[in-house]
Amino acid sequence: MTGEARDPSGDTGPLDGVTVLDASRVLAGPFCGMQLADLGADVVKVERPDGGDQTRGWRPPAYGDSDVAAYYLSINRNKRSVTLNLASEDGRDLFRDLAERADVLLHNFRVGTMEEWGIGYETLSEVNPGLVYCAISGYGEWGPDRDRPAYDIVLQGEGGLMSITGPPDGPPVRVGVAVTDIVTGFYATQSILAALLDRELGDGGGQKIDVSLLDAAAAFNTYAAMYYFATGEPPVRRGGKMRTIVPYQVFETADDYAVVAVPSNNLWSKFCAALDREDLADDERFATNADRVEHRDVLEPILEDEVAEYATDELVSLMRDHGVPATPINDMADVYDHPQVRARGMRTSVEHPTAGTVEMPGVPMHFSRTPATVRRHPPELGEHTDEVLRELGFDDGEIERFRDEDVV
Predict the structure, then answer these.
(1) Helix or strand or coil: residue 360?
(2) Which tens digit of pLDDT belongs to each residue from 46-94?
């Protein structure tokens, strides 16, 4: 990232010219790396020669008739794959060579591992002072739990999210995607972008970033945490309802379920009109949202009985005709056949050498000059090892020696 002017035309993203060395695996780190790659960075994924990122083996499901894991495909597009044995000195030397040329280094090894290998931030920043070095871990690099292993489901419980997810009279429920991993990946991405901007606007120096799953979970609680700070009472599970707005919830219909959101008095009047219950809008007990929250034990059973008379499609259509936000509960087939999702390019595909045409979610970031795109299939293990080593200046004989000695 030299600061030189470049041509932003074509399909180069806003991070074109940025090189990322991604030594992470599973989800939080690779998700961050994919975002940077979608934005145009050259992301070099460093993997173990003996199997690579463990998500390559997380099947079923595989994609179509191939043996390529769908999980791996979901978070590794637009990258190049290099195999390096970091347990070997030659492998670590090659990693240092790559880091010396990189703008960003991303990893999620156990705290202290990179330092033990001699490729920690202090060492690498000596040869590359502009390096932005992002370390992702379960609990961060200091504190009493720094050495504990962590997985998303553990952090959903430990970070409070499961305490507010699920039915009031049922068990705590895991969010259906690994949300603490993904949110940590988002925080890592924005931290890296901020550090790159600081480097460009400042003295050209890089810095180390420490991002943890527990920190991300604690930050992600946002207003739920503030309810606790404000009242001293931890929020509880409310199923498909919200504590501070009524009605703003999942309703059971005659044939399924639907979501209806009424966060304002204007929408409350429209909602009542849609149900032909203007008398509720005129009832002083329900005049404002604060009134509706106060009297929710009276109001909610009335609304639930009214809504239960309608089929889901009928209710959603009725609400939308009156300008009230409403939707059925879409499954994945519904989502990716949604006309708005298709219109926005959020269902896309890429050609894979063994899995064929692979469909996947598109890029949700849209730029007017420097488009973020799906340019490259999720790489096969070590697919670009020779290519990247040649870029470092090694000839075919040296590359073959590395392979013979299990360095790559």
Answers:
(1) strand
(2) 999 999 999 999 999 999 999 999 999 999 999 999 999 999 999 999 9
The amino acid present at 175, given as its one-letter code, is V
Exposure b/e, 350-366, CB count within 10 A at least 16 = b:
bebeebeebebebbeee
Preceding amide of 61 cis, omega within 30 = yes
231 in any annotated domain: no
User: Residue 19: which H helix or E strand, with range?
Assistant: strand 19-23
Measuring CA to CA, which residue among 342, 347, 353, 345 is closest to residue 377? 353
152-172 residue pLDDT tens:
999 999 999 999 999 999 999
Write the CA distances from 227 to 96, 234, 262, 264, 298, integer angstroms. 47, 7, 20, 20, 23
Averaged confidence pLDDT in the chain: 95
Q: Count the domains in the chain.
A: 2
The CATH number of the domain holding residue 119 is 3.40.50.10540
Q: Is 90 exposed, middle or buried (0-12, 13-18, 19+ CB in 10 A)?
A: middle
Active-site pick, 181, 276, 291, 396: 181
| Structural domain contains residue 14 | no
255 classed as catalytic: no
Same domain, 75 and 128: yes
Give residue 43's domain range.
Answer: 19-220+343-404
List, in sequence order, every residue forming a beta bridge with 358; answer none if it has no partner: 350
